[in-house]
Amino acid sequence: MQETHHIVQLLKKSLEGSLSPVEEAKLRTWAGSDAVYQALLDRMRNGHSLEELLHLRHSLEQHDRQDYADQLQEALDARIAASQGVTKSHTFRRWLRYAAAALIVASAATWIFFGSELNKQPKLVNLELEDIQPGGSRATLTLPGGQTIDLSEAQTGIVIVDGDIAYNDGASLAAVPDDDLQENTLLELSTPQGGTYQVTLPDGTNVWLNSASTLKYPSRFDKDNRVVELIGEAYFDVTQIRKPAASSNVPFWVVSAGQTVKVLGTEFNITAYADETETKTTLVEGAVQILNHTFNTVSRLQPGEQAINRAGNMTIKKVDTEQFTAWKDGFFYFDGLAPNVAFDQLERWYDIEVTYQGSVPSIRFFGMIDRGKPLSSVLKTLEKSGLKFQMMRSGEKNRLIIVEE
Question: What is the CATH number of the domain that holds 341?
Fold first, then answer.
């Protein structure tokens, strides 16, 4: 089924004239493997045959899609019946080929006939790069009762003080029921793709939330522990708080994918996206301990170090922390960055979909780029490294297609 789907995709791209040389070779190899497949490809590429298909569509538009499915089945039955005079094993093999070809015809023809109605594969259209603007201050606050508040894009963050919520400039956020802001009641701040937001927690800790991320935190911390949960990426500037009548600080805990970070007062960045295989903790100032959930081990970081957690396997190395925290100050920092990592950042910030026409390029990217610029400015910089691309719109989604080197 997966192979059939792949061939249908290649046939679609062939009709659109968007096949890459590699894809063209794959399609020819598939067609050359059997005369049935070659005949199918010839038919799909024959203008007269397509005209006949469109006439068939016109006649079928007066009926439901089941009529068309029945006609396809009749065609398949006729193919099978025509092969009955051949030996049994040979018949079965030919039946498999005809069945596969009929399935591909059904899938491809359904796309031709009903693609606009089914909205399965929207038509790709060229898109001007200047149309893709950068993200901004966008986030949603979810209250314990399930009420959601779309936060102002004119603001950059919110502040939680004594259970009250306001914007950074002191402007009132919304009328929030007192019952929703009791001790140990969780709030949830979420940013979409193309969004960032900042929150000052009840203890004065500042958190900057990157795109496509979620932070869960209480409206009030208790006196012995401060615990938050993170999905995605955030930069933390943790406030030190002394325990009453004690010589130690109240610990601050960040729970994320596969680990818990314990801090006493420091600055660090955590990247823990659900669709990535690594969780990265980068320490800027102070010290942190990382509890590995998989092996129940503890690692300690010093400033300038990064812990990479891959399914419980922890690696610690020295890094240039600015490369992993520049996003907070409004920059992309590419210092020999692998293309797929850079594209992940562009995908989240510009709310686009990145696809590859062939393999991922082996080039490396360098430079510091203002995240406030449109996508065109970023791509022009990356072009200097040899990047080749197309920008298309598919339905309502903007798609950056990376062309094979």
Answer: 3.55.50.30
